Request: fold
Amino acid sequence: MRHLMNALDLSVEETENLISLAESIIENPERFSDVCRGKKLATCFYEPSTRTRLSFESAMLNLGGQVLGFSSADSSSAAKGESVSDTIRVISGYADICAMRHPKEGAPYVASLHSSIPVINAGDGGHNHPTQTLTDLLTIKNLKGRLDNLTVGLCGDLKFGRTVHSLIDAMVRYPNVRFVMISPPELKIPEYLRKDTLDARGIEYKEVNVLEDVLPELDLLYMTRVQRERFFNEEDYIRLKDSFILDARKMRLAPEDMLVLHPLPRVNEIATEVDDDPRAVYFKQAKYGVYIRMALIMTLLEVIPEC
Ligand code: CP
Reply:
């Protein structure tokens, strides 16, 4: 039995297998419509979510399985003080696989230690969000045609943004990927990521605070929201929340084939006028989340159909 806590739990080869499986699903979804018949997915979400929870549920339903779960800590017995480890022991008797989101870093890992079913980290605090990373990789591979030889712009909250941390971890494994980090000084990437991942591997990157200056050199622009829920101080949030706003004027500075990704939800950081630009692929990216989660559920449950 395998769990997924971090995008790096999967080797490059395993990641590519998942992406290929997701691409097969995109081409022929009918082929997979019954492979999880009789199986149940539990979604245990202690923190709000639209895409991750509903795309997991959509994925399991598309595979012919069933879903159960809770969408907030308040609607579960966590509100009465039940621990994550007790909860997963109980859920192990109700479902075959569990996707868990929790505001505390490491909570899904604790669950995995006490679980007899596969546990998938669906986002733990500011730490990791591996299925978002798999979604991002599928989107880039499918729409850009490659995961190597890319200049990737990461913009917004690079300090607390777990999707950015996981994406950096995953993309440094591909050749000739360089990063341009665009953030206010207060929201730069954490020191451990700079030292242990970028510097340790000799990855090329630069840090800037003007988006317009670097747009012409990007293959991808990964926008992120400044997350109110991660700030201790409301004044800091208000000061920083609108640091970078991508609009149609700025998009004119970008290459014609630059893709704009965003894990969503967005607040103000991408003006709605950008949505109709063919380079804006964030809604397609959200849809790809269903396909990669279908591939992941099949892989962890070992129910991939024969070719
Ligand atoms: N991208 C993402 O994790 O969205 P949700 O918070 O809506 O799940």
About this structure: The pocket of phosphoric acid mono(formamide)ester is lined by residues 49-52, 123, 132, 263-265 (CB under 6 Å).
